[in-house]
Amino acid sequence: MKYATAAALCLISSTLTLAAPTTKRASFSGFIVPSVLKVHDINSNLNVASPHTSTIRTANGFETSTLYQIPIPAELSGKTCALVIHATSNDQIEGTGELDIFNNLFADLNDLPSGNQRNQQLARVAYDAATGFYDFDTVGFANPKIQSFPCPAGATLKWESVAVGTYDVNVIAQDFANVVGSAAPNGLSVGYY
């Protein structure tokens, strides 16, 4: 019986690490939102400014990713940052609800009419309908680099969200005003504490 209980506890423990909650949600003192957001059409290679994340992959070959440019203020020096993605019932999440997050090599998203210049994968996140947040999937992508990292004060983050499953719809309205306090804005942001 002891061995069965220990095995069950190990199984429960490994299951709980599948979708680790976004880092210390309640302790965030603010959030930085993208200054520029563009939807990248995988088939045409064109980028179009957008007020929402639109990361989609469908069975008929339609696919988009979303590009983000996020300037981190110099006054965040010495703080810790983390990726936060929040959605509401007004947003459209279908399929696996998973996103891979990459960094990108473009100089300025404002000047990028086509292409995405995808570089290195930083994390995989999965939508939790019960909380409205995308949680880090540490099984699908161990050691996410943006779950907790020193805020790159004075620098600009350049990220891309990419669909994971064969059918995924992640259309999330983006708030474009930085937030002071622990209430996360809708869409993608960088929380800090």
Helix percent reads: under 10%
Compressed to H and E, one letter per element, the order equals HEEEEEEEEEEEEEEE
Averaged pLDDT: 89
Main sheet? 10 strands, antiparallel
Helix count equals: 1
DSSP E strands, number: 15
How many whole angstroms does the radius of gyration measure? 17 Å
Low-confidence stretches: 1-19
Class inferred from helices and paired strands: mainly beta
Gap from first CA to last CA: 44 Å
Strand content: 35-45%
The outline comes out as globular
Topology:
Elements: H1 2-16, E1 30-32, E2 36-41, E3 47-49, E4 52-57, E5 63-71, E6 80-86, E7 92-95, E8 98-104, E9 118-128, E10 133-136, E11 149-150, E12 156-163, E13 168-173, E14 179-180, E15 187-192
Antiparallel strand pairs: 1-14, 1-15, 2-3, 2-5, 4-5, 4-13, 5-12, 6-11, 6-15, 7-13, 8-9, 8-12, 9-10
Describe this structure in words.
The protein is mainly beta and 193 residues long. Helix content is 8%, strand content 44%. The chain contains 1 helix and 15 strands, in the order αβββββββββββββββ. Strands 2, 3, 4, 5, 7, 8, 9, 10, 12 and 13 form a 10-stranded antiparallel β-sheet that branches. Strands 11-6-15-1-14 form a 5-stranded antiparallel β-sheet, with no helix packed on it. Strand 4 and strand 5 form a beta hairpin.
